[in-house]
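Example: PPPDE domain-containing protein.
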Amino acid sequence: ALAGQDDEDGPVPAGQNPATNRVELAASELFTVPGLATAYHTSVVVNGEEFFFSDSGILWDRALTSHQGKPSELVDLGFSRRTGSQLMSVLQPHFAPGSYD
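Written out as structure tokens, the predicted fold is:
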């Protein structure tokens, strides 16, 4: 949860910000169909570690590997009380190797 929001650990007290894990969205343009849409590859970055979904399941890396090191956009989403390791633990069962389409 972002600072100031409730989560399973309870509400964040007013004036306190225990959320110390920076969260960003990395996006890279894949292709554009003129007049229709643009497709993007996206991933989540927590404290500089990228988390992304591939044929191998959810992977992580420190070099923005899935964007060849340079995403088109890196959007700051704020801070979370959760770590990248916690993100992996929660999502891995839902994004198994071989389930990428």
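Residues 39 and 85 are 28 Å apart (CA to CA).
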